[in-house]
Amino acid sequence: MSFVSAVLFAAVVCSAATPETGTNVFESPAPPVAESQLDNLVFAQLTRLKVQPVLCSDAVFVRRAYLDVLGTLPTAGEARDFLQDSDTKNKRRLLIDRLLERDEFADYWAMKWGDVLRIKAEFPVNLWPNAAQAYHRWVRASIAENKPYDQFVRELLTSSGSNFRVGPVNFYRAIQNRTPEGIARAVALTFMGTRAEAWPTNRLADMTAFFSEIGYKPTSEWKEEHVFWDPLGTSTLAGNSAPGRAAVAAIGQASNHLSELSLPARTNGGPVEAVFPDGTQVKLSRDRDPREVFADWLVTPQNRWFTRSVVNRVWAWLVGRGIIHEPDDIRDDNPPSNPALLAYLEEQLVEGHYDLKRLYRLILNSQTYQLSSMPRFNAPEAEANFASYSLRRLEAEVLIDAINKVAGASDLYTSPIPEPFTYIPKGMPAVAIADGSITSPFLALFGRSARATGLENERNHKPTPAQWLFLLNSSDIQRKLEQGTNLQAVIGFGRKPSEVVDDLYLTILSRLPTAEEVTAIEEYGRREPARPDPGKSSPTARPGSATNSATAASVTGTNAAPPGQSGPTNKLGATNAAGVRSGPIGNLGQPRKSGDKPAPARRREAWFDLAWALINSEEFLYRH
């Protein structure tokens, strides 16, 4: 198939069905019906904007739910079972319940909290591998047991002990600026969803008193450090870098000298005045850790700083945009797009005793979460009021795990530090890696969070030409597709072409191919030239070449160019003549019927080209 004919054929495929004709495989014909107060509040805003929302199809939902709850794709079997389940009334709810109980749930959400809590062994956080592992274990265990969020935050704020043995104390060690002001800024960002640099100067200064007595004391174990309440300021004394010695190197050496301590003058001082961020004044007693006083104020049900921050963050994680946008930029001059919705979610969190799984379940089961990703209105107000599910590229870790899962391959992640705590078993998914310092060229290229500041925008979801070129031309991706055990099993000898096509689509896109796609595959199977023998030169394209770039367009109905760049076929977010924007790959028309003629493939290489085309499609690369 020549490049020109492939492009022309792609254009024909894309024009074969438009959003006005045929059946859309991405949307449900059933109209959305408000089933909860959450939906009532959202749909009321959409009615005011004259927006008619549309539900996503089952195929879209099963993929979306797996990615948003577990950070992984469903297997072909899981997708097929869900699509064939005849219990249309309950199957989405039952799937959500099952996903929330799976082990991968804790792995994925520990990764998301790891970004916020800055779990990273090396520069610029410098937790050290042992501490990063302890921190991540505690976070993951807390998520797995569904620890109430108020308890989770209280332990982070008030814990004391070894950074190697008491995971939550690393919250204070992961802050680059360990001055009282630097800690106060980190606490405000992480647990109040607000950036203290936008505060009045006196508000931040008044808050620092709660974090002015935190001590850090090394021990005789390499890189171990105790975090503790230090009202006497002993951790700041000269010669106190290790117990009984002026330096770690001196431990074990004989000494007949007793340590002389000079306690600071504040030892016998009276109560200290402090002011909470809401302006409430309090006197700090010398017999109680000020961190506990602050935690008591923060986690009370009446404190909207606390509940508003976490419900807005969780909503943004699941729906793609905060009710207050961005989710860690809550301030008076950045109001919520739907104040009633935000207040309702806050009430539900408090009513559920800060049970985050209950909050996830409430959002995931809503019709709002299950809306189509195909925006029908260009007005910013429609997006801000959740008229459609927010399109966004998969996170770097999720994307490489998806490619590996599709192919049946794996990556080996290593650390530059030769420590026992940096060993990563082969086959561990990227979402389960504890330490943000352990990375790979792929993770760096696709915008993994640097975990330096705890800001949500540290993770970059924007596609770049370099990412597109990598996916099109990477020999590593080609090797995984051609040698991976999963794809080898899918295209195994003796299987019917129709079975191979179905399983490839279910494995990669979590849906069955449409009739138009089957026709495109059949055409490519007839025209795709034979591969040359290894070592012989040939103009035949391999995965990543211009010819196969066009093949991706013809098979999937999309242009393989980076999102945002022009191309000859239907694009993500493109607008047709009627002013209706398409979804991830537009409307592909009628799903294939079981009796339709299967697409013949005369060479195994053609199946690998199809798999390559599908993983380079925007439908695979994006949440939708």
Can you give a write-up of this model?
The chain is mostly helical and 624 residues long. It has 26 helices and seven strands. The strands form three sheets. The chain has a three-stranded antiparallel β-sheet with strand order 1-3-2. It has a two-stranded antiparallel sheet with strand order 4-5. A hairpin with a 5-residue loop joins strand 4 and strand 5. The longest helix is centred in the N-terminal third of the chain and has 16 residues, at 129-144. The radius of gyration is 28 Å and the shape is globular.
Record the SSE blueprint.
Layout: H1 3-15, H2 37-48, H3 58-70, H4 76-84, H5 91-100, H6 103-117, H7 129-144, H8 149-158, E1 161-162, H9 170-173, H10 180-192, H11 201-207, E2 214-218, E3 225-229, E4 272-275, E5 281-284, H12 290-298, H13 304-319, H14 339-351, H15 356-364, H16 380-384, E6 392-393, H17 396-407, H18 441-445, H19 465-473, H20 475-483, H21 485-490, H22 497-509, H23 515-527, H24 546-556, H25 604-615, H26 618-621, E7 622-623
Antiparallel strand pairs: 1-3, 2-3, 4-5, 6-7
Helix pairs in contact: 1-24, 2-14, 3-5, 4-22, 6-7, 8-12, 13-14, 13-15, 17-20, 22-25, 23-24, 24-25
